[in-house]
Amino acid sequence: MATVRLDQKRHALVRAVPDSFGSALANFFGAGPSDVESARQTHKDYCAALEENGVKVTTIPTDEDYPDCIFVEDQAVIIDGHVLLPILGAPSRRGEQQPVADAIIDKLSGYKVCKMTPPAQMDGGDLLRFGDLFFVGRSSRTNDAGIAELRDLLDHLGYELRIVDIPDNALHLTSLASTPTDTILLAPKGYLEQSIFGELPDGGEIIWIPEAEAYGCNTLGLPNGKVLVADGYPTVVAELESRGLEVVSIDMAQIRAADGSLTCLSLFL
Ligand code: GLY
């Protein structure tokens, strides 16, 4: 999940792949999944990679009525003991939320939970944490009213929020960018202007990746310092390894086919 620091990544929620996954929304990187069993294998590899690298995984049962339900990142924003339940930008995905909210409440008793109110809309995939700085994508899924509600929470917690306009050919901010560590941001040339993130705090670095490897910019930093990456993005791997980071890669083809990336598959508590 993109809203926790590396040292907070100890426990992740994931959701099992439904048979209906072939009907998942796919309008950007993907043309629709064609092999649900392969997607299940990827999901298994993903959970194993999390567990082997220091993350406890809790799996929420799937729901055949919601082909996109594996993308739990979108369903909640969890920041330092506060939980914001957004109103998803895609109406077909709103019914996925209750079991995710129930799982969070079950694991995090004592956390403060708030729900967004209309007309606010936001997908958790539009939020990216870079240490103590947050970026939110203004996208086809996240509107200004949703950003205003998020800003209220971040103001309360004392964090800065910057808005990144997401181009029409991309789904979420985290479809294009990730923070494999608390001081490195990966983003693709072409999709985003190089000034879009503003001046970074001391010690922060943006690594700009060629446009052809845009999908590979979504990586997942693990609490032991390794980084999970999608197979097939050599520049991403080379840039991370040249900074001393060890990479663990998995085949994401069938998840990409549903416009999903590594971070979309988990929600860190
Ligand atoms: N298929 C993921 C989404 O569109 O939300």
What features would you describe in this structure?
This protein is α/β, with parallel strands linked by helices and 269 residues long. The protein has a single domain (6-268), classed as 5-stranded Propeller (L-arginine/glycine Amidinotransferase, Chain A), CATH 3.75.10. The chain has 5 helices and 15 strands. The strands form 5 sheets. A 3-stranded mixed sheet has the order 2-1-15, sandwiched between helices. Strand 4, helix 2 (97-107) and strand 5 form a beta-alpha-beta unit. The protein is globular. The relative contact order is 0.20. Bound molecules: glycine. Glycine (GLY) binds next to loops.
Keywords:
three-stranded mixed beta sheet; L-arginine/glycine Amidinotransferase, Chain A; 269 residues; alpha/beta; binds glycine; globular; 5 helices
